[in-house]
C-alpha cells in the first residue's frame, strides 16, 4: 500500500519512449524549466539504489523537471546524449546540457543540482 502512495506522489517522470522524451524536453524548454535526467538501468544496482534519493531531490526542487530514463528501454536518447555508464545524471537548460555527473555520488549530485537550481533562480530574478 505504501508503495502505491509513494508512486502517486512521485515527481520523477519516467521516460518510456523517444516521443515522451521529446515531449517533456520541449514542454520544459517552452516554459523555461530546467531538467535533471537520471539515466538508469534495472540491472545496475548503484543506479537503482539512487532512485529514492532522486525522488527526494525532485521533491526538494519543485521548479525543476526530473526525468528518469532506462537506457535499455530508450536507447536512442541514451546514445544521443552519449551516456556510456550508469547512473549518469545530466542537467539541462533550454535543451542544452549544462552539467553531467557519472556515478552514484549522492552528496555531489545534491551539490550540483543545488547550484544548478540556484543559478536558474538568479538568472530569472
Automatic annotation (TrEMBL):
Superkingdom classification of source: Eukaryota
Keywords: Disulfide bond, Electron transport, Redox-active center, Transport
Keyword Lyase: no
Transmembrane annotation, as ranges: none
Gene3D superfamilies assigned: Glutaredoxin (3.40.30.10)
Domain Thioredoxin: 1-118
Listed Pfam families: Thioredoxin
PANTHER family xrefs: THIOREDOXIN, THIOREDOXIN-LIKE PROTEIN CXXS1
Name under which the protein is recorded: Thioredoxin h
